Amino acid sequence: MDSIIQYITDESIKLWDRRDRRTDGWFLTESPQTPVLICLSYLFAVKIIGPKLMQNRPAYELRGVLMVYNLFQILFNGWMFYHICRLTWFNGYSFICQPVDYSDNEDALQLITMGYCFYISKFIDFLDTIFFIMRKKNNQITFLHVFHHASIPLTVWIVFRYIPGGQASFLPTFNSLVHFIMYFYYLMAAMGPQFQKYLWWKKYLTVFQMVQFFLVGLHGLQLLFIECNFPTAFSWYALVQTVFFFNLFKNFHSNAYKQKQINNNNNNNNNLKKIK
């Protein structure tokens, strides 16, 4: 037993020694325990504390707060998307094989800054769930929603501490674009019922997220078949995670569509009964 513990300890030290030391000292990134503890606190807050505090309270409308929050998310994610693209895909990056630039040149250091902003944004996203709880929108606090929010920060931490750039830039690029569009929808929804007629594309949000996971998984999969100076362990990790999330979102989309069909059929039956 002692030898097993010693082996795990030694391997953990070796793994930690492989980190990108340029990211040492950044707030909330010093060890994996930090995002883990924050995510566990999030789970405790949204599953226990939040519902208990709101149990005997009326739902808050939060219309103004949501409009400001969604506008901030639009601007923040749009800003990240632009700068990540500027530093990578519009700057000669290859979609096939792009090793991480571990140098101290200006573009590489700017990309680290954008990676850190992306990491922090995953904690800001926790407010989505907090607002659902305060508005008593419990039907939107699904397993998919909570698990997605609670697990992504650790993935982004791994990317930031070990591979802040290169092939790994594809994830924050596409994800910031998805969030830009998603929060634009939420902003319009928060502006009132008069904008509902412009929200016909709601059903495509989940499809867009599924496309994101498919492309991120495909982008990582190719590294298993070509020679590239990029850790294949991350490719396996990204592939497993994207397949898992793709299926979760696919099931969510299918169930939501089936429920809508059932509701439409019930409404049609009720209308027929009224006519009779």
From TrEMBL:
GO biological process, one term: very long-chain fatty acid biosynthetic process
EC top class named in words: transferase
Catalytic activity annotation: a very-long-chain acyl-CoA + malonyl-CoA + H(+) = a very-long-chain 3-oxoacyl-CoA + CO2 + CoA
Transmembrane annotation, as ranges: 62-82, 111-134, 146-164, 170-192, 204-226, 232-249
Compartments where found: Membrane
Keywords: Fatty acid biosynthesis, Fatty acid metabolism, Lipid biosynthesis, Lipid metabolism, Membrane, Transferase, Transmembrane, Transmembrane helix
Membrane topology: Multi-pass membrane protein
EC numbers, comma separated: 2.3.1.199
GO molecular function terms noted in the UniProt entry: fatty acid elongase activity
Domain of life: Eukaryota
PROSITE patterns named in the record: ELO
Gene Ontology CC: one annotated term: endoplasmic reticulum membrane
Coiled-coil annotated residue ranges, if any: none
Family named by the database record: Belongs to the ELO family.
PANTHER family reported for this sequence: ELONGATION OF VERY LONG CHAIN FATTY ACIDS PROTEIN 7, FATTY ACID ACYL TRANSFERASE-RELATED
Listed name of the protein: Elongation of very long chain fatty acids protein
Organism of this sequence: Daphnia galeata
Lineage: Eukaryota, Metazoa, Ecdysozoa, Arthropoda, Crustacea
